[in-house]
Task: structure prediction
Amino acid sequence: MRSRWFDDEARSFVERYAAHGEDLALRVYTSRLIGAEPDLVLHGGGNTSVKSTFRDLLGEEVPAIFVKGSGWNLDTIAPEGLPGMDLAALRRLRRLPSLSDEEMVNQQRTHLFRADAPTPSVEALLHAFLPAKFVDHSHADAVLALTNRIGGEEVVRAVYGERVGIVPYVMPGFALSLAAAEAHDRTPGCSGLVLLKHGLFTWGETARESYERHVELVDLAERWLVGNRRRSFALGSPPSVAPADAAAVIAPLLRGRLAQESGDPDRPFRRMIVEWAGDEEVLAWVSSPDMEALARSNPLTPDHSIRTKPRPMIVANPDGLDTEPWTRAIEAVLEGYVRDYRAYFAAGVAARGERRALDPLPRVILVPGVGMFTAGASRAEARIAADIYRHTMRTKSRVHETGEYEGLPDLDLFDVEYWSLEQAKLGKVKEKVLARQVAMVTGAAGALGSAIAGKLLEAGCHVALLDRDEEALAATARRLAEKHGEAAVEAIVHDVTGEESTARAFAKVCRRFGGADVVVPNAGIARSGPLADLALADWRQVQEVNSTGVFLTLREAARLLRRQGTGGNVVVIASKNVFAPGAEFAAYSASKAAAAQLGKVAALELAADGIRVNSVNPDAIFGTAEQPSGLWREIGPDRARARGLEPADLADFYRRRSLLKVRLTGEHVGNAVVFFASNLTPTTGATLPVDAGLPEAFPR
Ligand code: ZN
Result:
C-alpha cells in the first residue's frame, strides 16, 4: 500500500473548506484517502478524528474534538460529517470505572456543539483519550490477516516491534476506549495501536503524519504476508456446467426458500433480494478444497456478522441444471443452518440475557462451481454483504497461506450482532409496501413503461427494466437510478417477441435479483389505418409484440414464479380498446384483446400458486416533455387524421371525451400497477380502467 497524499490536493481541500479551518479541511482530505482504499475500510467502516478548537458565541476558543459521525462514509465525508464535541468534558470521563453504551452515547450527544449534528462514532471516546491531534482508524485487511491467526499477537510484535501498542479484543465502547488508552500509555513512543481482531489506529501531529503512518503499517503487514507464504490456496476442479446458467436455476429456488412467512394473509412472505457473483476470484475460492474449513471459521471482525451473519451457508453442488436435485441440496443445508443459528442465539441469550431474535437466515451462500449468492432486504444490502465477503475470502486465504486462521468466539459475535443500541432500533423503520420485491417491466424505456417503473420504485420495489432500444433504455435506467439508487435498478436489453431472448432476460433477472415477484407485460406497438388497407406484415408485427410478446412473458413468468413458490403478481397493460375498439385501429385493438384474454386465462391457471393476474386498461398516454411517448409520435398523426383533428390537438381531444376531463399520465397507470402488486384486495382476473371515465370502455 502506498500513500495517496498530494500537496496540491491537500491545498485544494484547505481552500474549498476554508470556512471550516485548515484542521478540519485536512481531516476531510485524509479521511477520504483512507476511504478510497477498500482494503482499509468498507461501507461506513473505520473512523477518523482531529483535535482542534471551536469558537463559541462569545468568541472564546474551546478545545474540541471532531470525530466521524454515524451515517457517513470516509470516502465521501464532508466537514458536516465530523461533528464537534467538547474535548475536556469527554476526557474527564476517563476517570470513570465503567459506562453503559446508552450513557456513553448520551455523553457524546450532550457535549456536541451543534444540536443537529450526527451522532459521533461509538469509538469517539477512544479518539478523545489518545493525546495526538490527528487519529486514524481502519479495519485494514492486512492487519486483520496478522491478528486473526493462532499466535497473532506474536506476529504483530514481530512485524511492528514497539511501534504499536497491542489491545486484546474488547467490543467497541467505553471499555475498549480505556483499554486502548492504557495500551498507549504502556507503550512509550508508539505511533499506533493494533486492536486484535478489530483493526488499526495511528496518530500524528499532522493529518499527513497520521495517515502516512497508517499506510506504512499496513504496507509492512502486506509485505510480511507476501514474504511468509508457505503454502497456496488449493484450486478446485473446473465446473461441469456454466456457472451463470446454474446460477439462474439456483437463485429463484434459493430466494423462494429464504422468504419467511410473515403471518399476514394479504402479504404472506417477507422476501429477500439475492444477487449472484461468479467472477474468477469468487469461483476459485468457493470451488477450492480449502474453502469449507475457512468458510466455517468466524468472521474477520464481529461487526461483519451484522451484514453477513456469523457464517455463510454452503450448498453442495449436485451437478447439472435440473431443479429437483438443487432444491433438495438447498433444503438439506438450510434447515441445519437455521438450527445452528438458533443455537448460537440461544447460547448468547443464556450468557447475556434476553434479546430480540433476528431472522436466522444466511446472507452469504457459497456454491462450489457456481459462485457466491448474497442476500439482504434490498440489493444494496446484498451488495454490502458481497463486498465484505470478498474481503473475507482474500484475507482468510492470506492467513491460510501463512498460518492457521482463528476468528473470535461466537459470544463476541453475538455481543455485536445483538448490541443493545442496535436492538433499540429494531422495528422502528417501516418498510415500504413493495420493499423486498422485484418487478420486471417490458417496454420500460417508453413513456408508459418508465412511469410504471418509477412508481414501482417509489413503492420500494426493485425494478428490472426491459426494452429492445438499448440507448433509450440506458437513459431511462440512469434517470431512475439517480433517483432511487443504483442497486434498485437493472437494465436488460430484450426483444419481447423472441423465445430465447425472453428466457435470457428472465435468467438475468434471476442472477441479479434472485427472481421476480411482479411482472408487467407492457411493451406494445401500434399501426394505424383502415382494415381494407392494412398490410399483412403490419398486422403480424403488431400481433407479435402485443399478443405473442405477452404470451412469452406470461409463460416465463409462470415458470419463474412457480419455481420461487412465493406467489406473485402479473399486471398486463392492455388498453381501453379492449372494450371500446377504435376504427382504423384493427391490429392494435385485436392484439390488446388477445393480451387481455391471455391475462384472464393466466389468472385461472395460476391462482392455485398464489399468483394473481390482473389488467390495466389505459386510454392514450402521451408522455411528458422529459419522456415523450414513442408510440404516439408514430401513430399520432394517423389517429388525428382518423378523427379529423390536428396532431397537436389530440391530447386535449382525449381529455375532453372522458367523464372526468383529466389528462392521463403514465404515473396514473403506474399507480394502478402498484395497487395490484400491493395485494391490497384479494383480486385476480380483474380489469382496472385508467381512462378518466369512458362509458363505452366500462369493463363488462
Ligand atoms: Zn473499529
Remarks:
- Residues 438-624+664-689 form a domain with the Rossmann fold fold (CATH 3.40.50.720).
- The chain has three domains: 7-227, 243-423, 438-624+664-689.
